From TrEMBL:
<dbReference type="InterPro" id="IPR001678">
    <property type="entry name" value="MeTrfase_RsmB-F_NOP2_dom"/>
</dbReference>
<dbReference type="InterPro" id="IPR006027">
    <property type="entry name" value="NusB_RsmB_TIM44"/>
</dbReference>
<dbReference type="GO" id="GO:0006355">
    <property type="term" value="P:regulation of DNA-templated transcription"/>
</dbReference>
<dbReference type="GO" id="GO:0008173">
    <property type="term" value="F:RNA methyltransferase activity"/>
</dbReference>
<protein>
    <submittedName>
        <fullName>rRNA cytosine-C5-methyltransferase</fullName>
    </submittedName>
</protein>
<dbReference type="Pfam" id="PF01189">
    <property type="entry name" value="Methyltr_RsmB-F"/>
</dbReference>
<dbReference type="InterPro" id="IPR029063">
    <property type="entry name" value="SAM-dependent_MTases_sf"/>
</dbReference>
<feature type="binding site">
    <location>
        <position position="343"/>
    </location>
    <ligand>
        <name>S-adenosyl-L-methionine</name>
    </ligand>
</feature>
<keyword id="KW-0694">RNA-binding</keyword>
<feature type="binding site">
    <location>
        <position position="317"/>
    </location>
    <ligand>
        <name>S-adenosyl-L-methionine</name>
    </ligand>
</feature>
<feature type="binding site">
    <location>
        <position position="360"/>
    </location>
    <ligand>
        <name>S-adenosyl-L-methionine</name>
    </ligand>
</feature>
<comment type="function">
    <text>May act as RNA methyltransferase.</text>
</comment>
<dbReference type="InterPro" id="IPR035926">
    <property type="entry name" value="NusB-like_sf"/>
</dbReference>
<dbReference type="InterPro" id="IPR023267">
    <property type="entry name" value="RCMT"/>
</dbReference>
<dbReference type="Pfam" id="PF01029">
    <property type="entry name" value="NusB"/>
</dbReference>
<dbReference type="GO" id="GO:0003723">
    <property type="term" value="F:RNA binding"/>
</dbReference>
<dbReference type="GO" id="GO:0001510">
    <property type="term" value="P:RNA methylation"/>
</dbReference>
Length: 475
């Protein structure tokens, strides 16, 4: 399955009609669907991010909780399955998708998601999509949308999969890519990274990518307590001693979050930082480094833990706006810490200056597809090849920065082997002064961590983002 097409903008016939200035009395769609349409338009037409643009739309339009939940499910689901829906829509129009006006195609994607993947009856999905197109684009485009949506609604998603996807027996990657809305190259990468590589585990992983991610919170050590989050309606996290899960609601309404005593942070992200802090260390334990610290969640955990041990944290980020986010996350920590804007590949500190080093390396983000629904269609295999040299250079810099006997945690939010274990393998082989440390003992109580020594979290197994952790000791 190829990435979604970017339609041409020079269309005027039915199905390619610009928004017209027809009388305002024509039927309009309900506010939830209009909000979803505008969010999808911003993502596809302006390269916006759904997790940023949609909350602003929901707040500015004052949708009630039920409508906001519907708009969120519709927006995120449509973006996740865009590639699949484009194939289905393409089978039901008489022209290439690139010849459809972009707003029309986005409206059809929204309609396809409602009829194929939500609890919206086909006739309702047709009528509401037609109303949306009529109100937002024009009458001619509405007639076109009506015809297309009626044909799309004649089958359910399983039936369209049987008709349009490769057979599972002949091409399991292509079949699962279509059925679960992932580009085939990502499906192959996940299959390669999954222990055992079974098709059932692969399908479970893909399905988990399409489920909403839980809102995970982390208290800042020394500034907040998990009990305060529980009293506000959260539940203790399963494994992180500083974590909690908020079943519903806006985390910004929790006093501890507003005051900076806690923040939103995936439990897997918490666990990899805690593993670095909990691993035993011979010799001094006074200087800690977070090399790519923005936006600051892991730095806030490490700063609090460092304060408890009379250690100091240096948090570094190359980008000034991300460094400001780190400063905000560390505000209120009573210990010694510094936030520095610098290129961590050539940091302005002496070699062997730190006892513990965290490198949360820039990566493809394939481990957080639940949270960034459009990312799977924007990323390309070439991105992996471009990121790997930077990841390798940063890890070498981390090794130079840590003292002999000190620890480095190499972390990514991706399971892609070209960004995880093979990067570590290459650096160890060329360094000659590193040893892998089994990270599993420092993730107490967490099940299904594999054979070690590295750890790969999985959404379908652990309910976290697909974080990767390798612990290394410099000899």
């Amino acid at each position: 399955m190829t990435p979604p097409e970017k339609p041409s903008r020079r269309r005027h016939q039915s199905g390619g009609q610009r928004r017209s200035r027809e009388p305002a009395s024509r039927p309009t769609a309900d506010p939830a669907r209009v909000a979803a349409f505008d969010a999808v338009r911003a993502v596809s037409g302006e390269d916006a991010y759904a997790n940023l643009v949609l909350p602003e739309l929901l707040q500015s339009r004052r949708l009630n909780a039920r409508d906001a939940a519907f708009a969120t499910e519709l927006t995120y689901g449509t973006l996740r399955f865009t590639g699949t829906y484009d194939v289905i829509i393409g089978a039901n129009v008489d022209r290439p998708l690139g010849e459809l006006d972009p707003p029309v195609l986005d409206a059809l994607r929204l309609g396809a998601h409602q009829t194929l993947s939500m609890r919206v009856p086909p006739h309702a999905a047709v009528s509401t999509t037609v109303d949306l197109v009529r109100g937002q684009i024009g009458e001619g485009a509405a007639r076109f949308a009506n015809a297309v949506m009626r044909r799309v609604g004649e089958r359910d998603l399983d039936a369209w999969t049987a008709e349009l996807a490769p057979s599972r027996e002949k091409d399991v990657v292509g079949h699962l890519a279509f059925r679960h809305g992932h580009p085939p190259w990502i499906v192959r990468a996940l299959r390669d990274a999954l222990p055992g590589g079974g098709d059932d585990a692969l399908e479970a992983c893909l399905a988990a990518d399409n489920e909403p991610a839980p809102v995970a919170l982390a208290v800042r050590p020394g500034r907040g307590e998990v009990e305060e989050l529980v009293e506000a309606g959260a539940q203790p996290a399963r494994w992180s001693r500083y974590g909690a899960i908020l079943p519903s609601g806006d985390p910004g309404r929790i006093a501890a979050v507003r005051a900076g005593r806690a923040g939103v942070q995936d439990e897997g992200s918490q666990l990899v930082a805690l593993a670095l802090a909990d691993a035993p260390l011979d010799g001094p334990d006074e200087r800690w480094l977070d090399m790519c610290a923005g936006p600051g969640g892991k730095a806030a955990l490490l700063a609090g833990l460092a304060t408890e041990r009379d250690a100091r944290l240096l948090a570094v980020d190359q980008h000034e706006h991300r460094a400001r986010l780190v400063e905000q996350a560390l505000r209120g920590d009573s210990g010694e810490h510094e936030v520095l804007v610098a290129d961590a590949t050539d940091g302005p500190w002496p070699e062997a200056d730190f006892d513990r080093v965290l490198l949360d390396a820039p990566c493809s983000g394939l481990g957080a597809l639940r949270r960034r629904p459009e990312a799977r269609w924007r990323r390309q295999p070439s991105d992996i090849a471009e990121l790997r040299p930077l990841q390798t250079e940063l890890l070498r810099a981390a090794v130079r920065s840590v003292r002999p006997g000190g620890l480095v945690a190499y972390v990514t939010c991706t399971p892609h082997l070209a960004e995880t274990a093979t990067v570590v393998d290459d650096v160890i082989r060329k360094s000659g002064e590193l040893e892998r440390i089994d990270a599993r003992p420092y993730l107490s109580g967490v099940p299904d961590l594999g054979d070690g020594p590295d750890v790969q979290f999985w959404p379908h197994v652990h309910g976290t983002d697909a974080m990767y952790l390798a612990l290394l000791r410099r000899r």
